[in-house]
Amino acid sequence: KKDKNMKIVIFAGGVGTRLWPLSRKSTPKQFEKIVGDQSMLQIAVHKLTPVYKWEDIYISTSAEYKDLVRSQLPKLPKQNIILEPATRDVGPAVGLVTAMFVKSVPNEPFAILWGSDHLVKKEEVFRQALKAAEKIVKEDPNKIVFVGQKPRFASQNLGYIAFGDKLRDIDGISVNSFTGFKYRPHLSTAEKYLKDGKHSWNLGYFVTTPRFLWNQFEEFAPSLFTELKKINEAYGTNNFSKVLEEVYPAIEKISFDNAILEKLDKKFGNVISVDIGW
Predict the structure, then answer these.
(1) Are 225 and 213 in contact (CB under 8 A)?
(2) pLDDT one-digit tens code per residue, 93-125
(3) CA 263 vs CA 195, 207, 212, 217: distances in Å
(4) Which of 3, 123, 200, 258 is exposed most, by the fewest CB atoms within 10 A?
(5) For the segment 141-167, what is each residue's pLDDT rounded down to a tens digit?
(6) Strand 160-170 and strand 57-62: pairing?
């Protein structure tokens, strides 16, 4: 049981990217060839495959992009494509994945990554950070570990993760306490963040367990949780796609940050701030 690999979910489409508007609806940016002949999605997956198996990687996307994902990632098992029947923002998208995983692998680490607007140049450091986060969550399934990019300049366009003291070191990766999120700051504040060494760019990457996240949805987003529970109960039964088609499109749109992250008890959080060349 102990050596079970972490599951990794890459969100690729449908949930709208945070940095740019999608180029064209039929082929959103994450599927277009960006670097050489690879799309953002392919790059996002290929930076993981040196250490993570294809069967542990999942793609969450809109139902309409199923064929695009299959054609771009032929090695990905078909059942590892999680399809949203409608676009409902990031809160419900993460909730849907959690509702499924809490039934199949409730206490094993899973990572939430974004595949559409992130280029990571230092892939080795990124994998080390994920491995460190995985180790923390294996030891304590009630932890949520945020992986942020060390700020390279005083950016006013990104959110920040604030962190406190260093708690430990895992294979050269520093793990710090979590002290909260900061919105896009004014320039003077961003300059302070850059200097104080206690802030990281928030990329929205984190590792936790499905059970922990499910409990957060139950506590902080009860009306969303009520709908997700119906999906959760149908998951793994013949009724699943019918229930998903009925329930999901009617769910209220809410960002994941507003629904869950901003309300999180800080004691559960850890922060890994690394230069992954993002």
Answers:
(1) no
(2) 999 999 999 999 999 999 999 876 567 888 899
(3) 27, 17, 14, 10
(4) 3
(5) 999 999 999 999 999 888 999 999 999
(6) unpaired
At 157, the amino acid letter reads: N
Residues in a beta bridge with 237: none
1: number of Cβ within 10 Å: 5
145/132 Cα distance (integer angstroms): 9
CB distance 226 to 233 below 8 Å: no
Contact between residue 271 and residue 200 where contact means Cβ atoms under 8 Å apart: yes
d(CA 44, CA 36): 14
Residue with tokens 């060390």: 150
Alpha helices in 152-270 (DSSP H): 187-196, 210-220, 222-234, 240-247, 256-259
3-state secondary structure of 272: strand
Look-up: residue for tokens 């064209």?
A: 24
Nearest to 214 by CA among 144, 132, 120: 144
- Cβ(9)–Cβ(80) below 8 Å: no
The answer for 249, left when phi > 0, alpha when psi is -120 to 50, beta otherwise, is: alpha
Cα separation of 171 and 107, whole Å? 23
Cα(151)–Cα(255) distance, integer angstroms: 24
- Residue pair 213/99 in contact by the 8 Å Cβ criterion: no
Q: Percent helix, strand, coil in the chain (nearest 5)?
A: 40, 25, 35
- What is the pTM (predicted TM-score) of this model? 0.92
Which of 247, 196, 248 is closest to 60 using CA atoms?
A: 248
Inter-residue contact 270 to 145 (CB < 8 Å): yes
The pair of three-digit structure tokens given for residue 18, joined into one six-digit string: 């945070």
